[in-house]
Amino acid sequence: MQLVKGLMTPAQGLKKHFGFEQFREPQDEIVESIIGGRDTLVIMPTGGGKSLCYQLPALMLPGVTLVISPLIALMKDQVDALNARGIAAAMINSSQSWDEQRACLDDLRRGELKLVYVAPERFRAQSFIDSLKGVKISLFAVDEAHCISQWGHDFRPDYQRLGEALEKIGHPCCAAFTATATPEVREDIANNLKLRQPATFVSGFGRDNLSFAIKQIDKRKDKIKRIRQLIENNGVGIIYCARRKSVEEVSTYLREEFVQHVIYHGGMTPSERDAAQDRFVRGEVPIAVATNAFGMGIDRSDIRFVAHYEMPGSVEAYYQEAGRAGRDGKPAYCEMLFCYADKTTQEFFIEGANPPLSLIHSIHSVLQRNVNENNEAFLTIEEICEALPGKVNGMAVSSAISQLRRCGAIERFDVPGSRLRGTRVLKRVRLASELGLDARGLLIKRQRDEDKLRRLIQFAYAKSCRQQWILEYFEDADAAECGQCDRCRHRPGNVGPVDEDKALVVQKALSGVARMSVRRSRHHWEARYGRDRIIKCLTGSQAKVIVDPGLDKLSTHGILKEHGTEFVGKLLNELENSGYLTVTEGDYPLLELTDSGSKVMFGELRPKLVWPETDDAITQAAEPDDALYEQLVKLRNDMRRKRGNPPAYTIFPNTVLQQMAALKPANAEEAMSIKGIGPQKARSILPPFLELINASAAQTAST
Q1: Do 412 and 429 reside in the same domain of the chain?
Q2: For the whole model, what pTM was predicted?
Q3: 609: number of CA atoms within 13 Å, CB side?
Q4: Tens digits of per-residue pLDDT, 71-105?
Q5: How is residue 530 annotated by DSSP?
Q6: Which end of the chain is more exposed for a tag (fewer CB within 10 A), N or C?
Q7: Cα–Cα–Cα angle for 169, 408, 430, nearest 5°?
């Protein structure tokens, strides 16, 4: 791609336009990729400098850069900041009059603008796409790109038109940016935008200056009290709520306490939300109370805390919202006030975002029955709800309309002089199957949303490092403990990777939990039993609670018998502390395998934990005789071959052979003092090993 003639280098442009002496890693590589005309996908944490990665290329390329952004208030902040730097930038969105939008388009066609921020809904209209014909578009930058993916935490249907819009305007270089995206979401972004062999940059998700904590608080009065403490301790902050009612509840308390603040939720008009955000961003008030369902796009560097008054719906949403703290690089605090009962709010949202096929068909039938001679219906969401049997979630109706539009059954259009949107029925059907919807896909989407909530709850109960847990969620397997979250501050011992033999013991323990669970998907296991029964099964108990349900027939029954109940109990505790097991909430506490635990069990992730201490002093004995140890291993391998190559640990694990090589037992009685050698193995497996040990001892004595 050709640069603007005579333009300075990226480093010079960085200094001139933004006042920075050098790039943050990997901004320079991203800028070079975009300037080189390569489609680019960037996953960079909040505060990492994503905006500069498309703003600087926009100034270095000919023509204009279109920036797709979902938040009008954020657009305005960015445009105002660019204009203040003398950069020609503007925006086009629904908050403007048609005359204002037309004036911007005129400037765009005349080549007087370098960056134009566009709301995704503008691409609903073919007339808008037509207005871009003849405009030299060098870069199509998609901010908050996770909104494209239906597997993301903040899916926006309007974003899914962007791939089609890109094709219609000639598919210029496309760069997509987001702060949080799992590998699955990244793939969805690339596919939807039809990115061509994109350069992908995933900078570290870790935020070293953030300290994370979760407090389990059941009573709302205690939550309010804690909010007051957070404000007193930290000053400037954002309080995220899951419900509009909660925003009002917190706001009422803050007013009574004479705490200056603004509120932000979907029940306010766009101008009211914009005004509230402007006041907070400009520093006029120290506190913002907002619904996490809408997000704020806050760009204020001195936010010292982010509190979640109620749980969000996913780890992605939590981390993105918490990440708005400490953008100046100074220490900041992030705390979730967790109450298990609050999950009903998120379950309501999941219900609203995932209407079943039967409801979608019913809504289509209501629209069919209420069209005029032009096949147009003019019904509000409330009127559609009233026309349906039973109590219907209004969110589900809106989601169903989006599904019908995407499958081509209807189209939506603006009604001149009204905020009401009309619906044109394009496909008349009798059966749900005739709509052309992907019923299986709808079910999978709901299951994944439910899984995201389940993972968020696992995160809340996990006893391992908070930041490490989050980073491993985003598949950063080498993430280290942060040392400053609530778990790290109160956790004794040294956490670290375990050796091969200990990893095998961990896998056995996790396999035992899995065998006593119900498998829902590759890494999702639904708990059925509590800790005590799992310990009994792993150690080979023949108690009634094990035998009656047939748990003694499991392949993992007694798999850790040689280690004893004390050790197994401590091991399960440490596996819970490390986030590989979690205790489910409900009538009875059950022990459940987490996704990370499942990956450890399958050998996809190396376990890191504090190895349990035991009262057994054998492991502190003399160093093993290396030569003897090698002979013992060879003997074990010979026995394995004769037995059809079973796993080595079924004969003796390495730890037992090492203790034999150290203690050199002369008989079965001495050998059984080693943990892992019981009466049965002493009779059936031990004799050849004792012969080898005694022969070695005799040879040593003779020399």
Answers
A1: yes
A2: 0.70
A3: 27
A4: 776 788 889 889 999 999 999 887 778 888 889 98
A5: -
A6: C
A7: 175
